[in-house]
Write a structure and sequence with these properties.
Elements lengths: L1 H22 L20 E15 L4 H15 L6 H26 L1 E10 L4 E7 L11 E7 L2 E5 L1
Antiparallel strand pairs: 1-2, 1-4, 2-3, 4-5
Helix pairs in contact: 1-2, 2-3
Length: 157
Amino acid sequence: MKLTLLPIWLGTLCALVPLFVSSCAQPSITGDTVGRAQAGQAQQVFFGSIVAIRPITIQGNRLGGTLVGAGAGGLIGNQIGSGSGRTAATVGGAVLGGAVGSHAGQAATSRRGLEIDVQLDKGSRISVVQEVNARESFAPGDRVRVVSGGGRTRVTQ
């Protein structure tokens, strides 16, 4: 009986994976992308020159991978043994699956980013982290606009 339920559970799990993954999708944080809440809102604009650029990694989200991994591990573990052995296998499978899924989820949602140091014309120096964007390239010495408002600051050309 349990072996006949396995394909149903795996089918259900596979159907839910895209839902979990899409729920963890992160909004774009490039210099030429704004969120819906920022559209139509006044933002301050400053001008300056890039002093330094450093490549960074923007860490991804672990939650979706953890949930999917724990669910899959628990389902697989539940197919092993009987009685308290089955319970232990289910718990162990869920823990192991959650750990593996967590790392996979973070790796899948991590993004390449830039830390951009800008010397503003008004005298202060700021650093802005944003996602790498193929449509924009920055180099030390470039003149840039720094747009700030709505809880977000971005560097544009």
